[in-house]
Design brief:
Length: about 850
């Protein structure tokens, strides 16, 4: 007979003989008696270690927990409905901290006994199994002393690299333990029956078009986290109107992810926000200041990304590298294009995209304009992919694939008289990728940059951002030869972008483009160039050359059967005839042009013709028809563009002629701000706008007129659109909602400025002292201020705070009514009786 195997009790050290069954079972804790088992459990509870039930880790996190209010509520609800819940998300999203916060709530609320198992540094099947079983204490024994009296929550943190083992253990544990629930964190789901997956997003970001960037920043969880961590190393640092935009962009470019935001915030001791923002292009070298005792993969942003990269298969790694050349996101067609030359990735692309999304490498798809799925890489992941792409010497091939694909998308600019609306929409989706490719090609003399920069100018020009492309256009013309077939497109773009559009050098560029294209015959492209040059002549009050170009463009459109070119030429001729005093000709041309343009043309092409129709209605005195045309024109070109400015000025003229001078002056101010971009206009239209402006300013009191005009100039474009289209009056609820404080909190802040004590403030606004204390605490938390003096200093600088609140009658609340009902009606305030 063989000698029995012996082990020692894990609690008292007493020798134990193992049975054959025990020897073959999986490793687990062993005790000589139930007393030792219970003693071991109590020791783990008191130790505060990682696996303790109510561990100090859950109750005493050293850093504050910021934001995630909605996530906490949803996860608490899910934990009570499912038994296996997995938090997924990209590197640095804060999955572990969120899981611990949820578990801590469960522990503090005594709803569940909680055990936490950190698996980041654990490898090997047996080690993972033992760690999980040990954390559960006596519950995993075959004959426990008694069934658990309470629900238990097991937190499995960082399961990424041991997914299969975790799945095996949980499949064994969960069926026999109905009071056990599991909360796991991983970059991808465990893929087990009954599992519920919760994707952890980045923290809420500031609204880039916010009316008040400082107030919006104070409402942003990402900015709040940045400020909290920044003040931990630089107590005097404050969010101001000067640095709010920099802080907001830092958080946005870091995708709202807590880990890199915390690293960036700790750099405040060395760099101001503007400097950090400017260095984010090299974020992998910049963000290396993780907590000293953190896991290796949390010591730097690069280490965190490398951890996930190593868990990908070779073909998934190759796809990630190729996708990094698409900073503007991508659909399946773009992904297919840039993976040309990687057969394994191209053949299995749909499955690979699904896999990368499940592993939190690419963001979940959103529906693009055409109804197709569109993915994106988080910016930090893309930077890491770029680094690996260069390291693998694949960057030249990947960018060649990208440029070839974008060139094929942009060909209609060369072959069509008027770029189809579908092509413009598609190029608009790829505008960031276009800009990226243009900058890459701008290092050399590749003639395709002329086509791509023209496509980019067409897209950005439609959005009122043509001046931002002007430098790229000039650079492309300088770097390429004079004989490229795409040169006329870049010359056209140079003439229609920048502050000098329609003047001087721009006119010479258009003349050169027309001359070069004439050498290729009377092509559809020549028709478009003549149309553009005719409009430029028009705004410079060169009427005869304008008419000649527009009539030739009309002839070319008729010859080629291009209905849209014909309609646009007629629309421009209608403007010419209107300014020349030919109402019959104007009405005839508009009647032929508008039906065609309304039937499928790009909205921006329709906008200018609708403004002409509005101006024609104004000349006839039909204010209602004019307003309808100008409003439709503005909706077609809802960006700060010359066409939008003209439509807004038209609505201002309608308002002034209808004696609504305050509205008219504000709209003129908003249009002037757009005109400051250098957009020209004909003398005929300028005179009418000037007359309306003078009439409105004379009709209003001097101070009020100046205030309305300045308010219009300072109005953000989105708010100006709302005012012009009547969707929401300026300064209404949308603007007030951007303020970081509630109305009552603003009242309290205004009274703090006066130096009142809490008791005096309570007496002034008729609430309890405790309520005032609560308001002040909320104000300090919301604004990140440390003292009452800081509140007073902040409030004194706010122009939009109310004046000190007057004494007001306290408004009865529901508690008054309840007290009255319980008292049988006795003591009910008079205003509530009979309610």
């Amino acid at each position: 007979m063989s000698t029995p195997t012996t082990v020692t009790c894990d609690t008292c050290g007493t020798s134990l003989a193992l049975t054959k069954q025990s020897r073959t079972s999986q490793p687990r804790a062993r005790y000589c008696s139930n007393a030792c088992r219970q003693r071991s459990y109590r020791l783990r509870q008191k130790s505060g270690g990682v696996e303790a039930g109510l561990s100090s880790e859950l109750l005493t996190q050293l850093s504050s927990f910021v934001g995630r209010t909605d996530e906490l509520v949803e996860l608490t609800r899910l934990l009570h409905e499912v038994r296996l819940l997995t938090l997924t998300g990209p590197a640095g999203a804060g999955k572990s901290r969120l899981a611990l916060e949820v578990a801590g709530q469960e522990a503090r609320g005594r709803r569940s006994e909680v055990a936490v198992v950190r698996l980041g540094a654990v490898t090997g099947t047996d080690a993972v199994r033992r760690r999980i079983l040990d954390a559960l204490g006596d519950e995993h024994e075959e004959s426990p002393v008694a069934p658990p009296a309470r629900d238990r929550l097991l937190v499995l943190d960082d399961c990424d690299h041991v997914l299969y083992t975790c799945g095996t253990v949980l499949t064994e544990l969960l069926p026999g333990r109905p009071r056990l629930s599991v909360l796991a964190t991983s970059r991808e789901p465990l893929c087990l029956p009954g599992e519920s997956v919760f994707s952890v997003p980045g923290l809420a970001l500031s609204d880039p078009e916010s009316v008040n960037s400082l107030a919006d920043g104070l409402r942003s969880d990402a900015v709040t986290l940045f400020m909290d961590r920044a003040r931990a190393v630089a107590p005097d640092f404050r969010l101001t109107r000067e640095n709010a935009a920099d802080v907001a962009e830092i958080c946005a470019r870091l995708d709202g992810l807590p880990l890199p935001i915390e690293m960036a915030a700790r750099l405040i001791r060395v760099f101001p926000p503007a400097e950090i923002r400017s260095r984010l292009h090299d974020r992998l070298a910049l963000l290396t200041n993780g907590w000293r005792l953190a896991d290796d993969r949390h010591q730097s942003l690069r280490a965190s990304l490398e951890w996930g990269y190593e868990l990908l298969s070779p073909v998934e790694q190759a796809l990630l590298r190729r996708l990094s050349v698409l900073p503007g996101g991508f659909g399946p067609d773009a992904a297919t294009a840039v993976t040309a030359g990687v057969p394994a990735a191209t053949a299995a692309l749909p499955e690979l995209l699904v896999s990368l999304e499940s592993k939190s490498v690419i963001a979940p798809p959103r529906e693009a304009g055409g109804g197709s799925a569109r993915f994106r890489l988080l910016e930090s992941t893309r930077c890491f992919g770029q680094e690996r792409l260069v390291a693998e010497d694949e960057d030249a091939a990947a960018y060649e694939c990208l440029v070839s694909w974008l060139t094929s998308l942009s060909q209609p600019l060369r072959t069509e008289a008027v770029v189809p609306a579908a092509t413009l929409d598609r190029l608009t989706e790829e505008r960031v990728n276009l800009a990226h490719a243009v900058r890459r090609l701008g290092r050399g003399s590749d003639e395709r940059q002329l086509l791509l920069v023209a496509a980019l100018a067409a897209v950005e020009g439609a959005r009122g951002r043509g001046s931002e492309v002007a430098v790229l256009v000039d650079r492309a013309l300088e770097r390429t030869g004079p004989h490229s077939e795409y040169r006329v497109l870049a010359l056209e773009a140079a003439a229609t972008t920048g502050r000098g559009a329609g003047h001087g050098g721009a006119a010479r560029r258009m003349d050169q483009a027309v001359r070069e294209e004439r050498l290729r015959g009377r092509s559809p492209l020549l028709g478009r160039l003549l149309l553009v040059r005719g409009i430029l002549h028009q705004v410079r009050d060169e009427h005869r050359p304008s008419a000649d170009d527009l009539e030739e463009a009309l002839e070319i459109g008729l010859r080629h059967g291009h209905d849209v070119l014909v309609a646009l030429s007629r629309g421009a001729l209608a403007r010419h005839r209107l300014e020349s005093g030919d109402p019959a000709g104007t009405e005839r041309e508009l009647g032929l042009a508008l039906p065609v343009l309304r039937d499928g043309a790009a909205p921006q092409w329709l906008s200018a013709v609708l403004s002409t129709a509005g101006a024609f209605a104004l000349e006839k005195g039909d204010l209602k028809q004019a307003e309808e045309h100008f409003a439709e024109a503005l909706r077609c070109r809802a960006y700060p563009h010359v066409d939008a400015a003209r439509a807004m000025e038209g609505l201002a003229l309608v308002a002034a002629r209808g004696y609504r001078y305050d509205r008219g002056v504000r709209l003129l101010g908003a249009a002037e701000r757009v005109r400051d971009g250098g957009f020209p206009e004909s003398g005929w239209w300028r005179r009418r706008v000037g007359e309306a402006r003078d009439t409105a300013l004379r009709a209003l009191p001097v101070g009020r007129a100046d205030a309305w005009l300045e308010a219009g100039r300072a109005m953000p474009w989105r708010q100006a659109l709302c005012l012009a289209l009547g969707d929401e009056p300026a300064g209404s609820r949308g603007e007030r909602a951007a303020h970081p404080l509630s109305r009552r909190e603003q009242d309290v802040a205004a009274l703090v400025v006066e130096g009142l004590t809490n008791r005096q403030i309570a007496a002034r606004i008729h609430v309890s002292v405790r309520t005032v204390e609560t308001h002040i605490r909320h104000i300090r938390t919301t604004l990140g201020l440390r003292s009452r003096a800081h509140i007073a200093a902040w409030a004194a600088q706010q122009a939009d705070l109310p004046a000190a609140a007057p004494a007001v009658r306290r408004i009865p609340d529901a508690r008054d009514a309840v007290r009255g009902v319980r008292g049988g009606g006795r003591g009910v305030r008079p205003e509530l009786r009979g309610a």
